[in-house]
Amino acid sequence: MSGMPRRIVMDVDTGTDDALAILYALAHPDLEVLGISCVAGNVTLDQVVINTCKVLDAAGAGDIPVAAGAAQPLIERARRPGGSHGADGLAGIWLPETSRQRSPLNAVDLLGQLIMTSAEPMSLVTLAPKTNVAMLLTMYPDVVARLEQIIFMGGSVSGSNVTAVAEFNVWQDPEAASCVIESSIPTTMYGFDLFGRLAVSQADTERFRAHDHPAVRLVGELLYRRRIRADDSTHDCVGLLGDAGAMVLLTNPELFVISEFPVRVNLAGIGRGQTIVDQRASHRGTGHDPDPWPRIVVAVDLDAAQAALTFVKVIDSYAA
Length: 320
Description:
Order of helices and strands: EHEHEHEHEHHEHEHHEEHEEEH
Structural class: alpha/beta
Distance between the termini: 20 Å
Helix content: 25-40%
Number of strands: 12
CATH architecture: Alpha-Beta Complex
Strand content: 15-25%
CATH class: Alpha Beta
Radius of gyration: 18 Å
Strand order of the largest sheet: 3-2-1-4-5-6-12-10-11
CATH superfamily: Ribonucleoside hydrolase-like
CATH topology: Inosine-uridine Nucleoside N-ribohydrolase, Chain A
Number of helices: 11
Largest sheet: 9 strands, mixed
């Protein structure tokens, strides 16, 4: 990408992989993070705000506003926080207390004001349950004309991680996810199918952990806590990028295979929270469906090695 950096806003529920995504976005020379909205998900809303501010501190970030948003889904009772990120959302990694003050605006108003007052179209990267974003689209309908795209981390084509068919971010608030998918904003879904395929090597993880720069060291600690056994003959461990892969998709779409499909969120029954991706070739562009599903772009494959290398290079730039 050349010229001026791409202006983005982020919507997060900062656990370990959201933290990796934030650190990547702040270091990338082609991105300018204008604000971050927080929603309950991996941990409670207050903890999400604290985690986000601590990550910004580690990166030495400037005065990027952080706003608190929805503490529960649109219509259901508040769900239990996700457990895979530890009680504090950052897997117990110690970080200094933060003196950053959250924005006096709520998350929806912060997003609305940033998007509507931007001189250039912006991209919105949502890595969390979609409650804040759905409320944004309802309360600030004119953002539809101001958003260049939405990068939607959530859903899946075939895999799942919370129920037999549902991915966590969509399962947390299916109505909100449906609202986002059914908007007219160009949307790209980075789903659970690719979630477990993008990982950083053990060598780079350990190199980051030993680094003097606090942001690089934090990336190493986060990856270390997200380690799994490599699916090869080395018997090494690799650190999963998780949600941070959506940021790599934003900056380097050429490393991904994408295709446009009709997509709908199941809102009822045993399949509630499932993203149904219609891959039938006969249903692409026929124009004869009396109830057409919204069509979005879905990432279906990637060059995992090159995407991981891209992530590593950006994190290395903290110490350049």
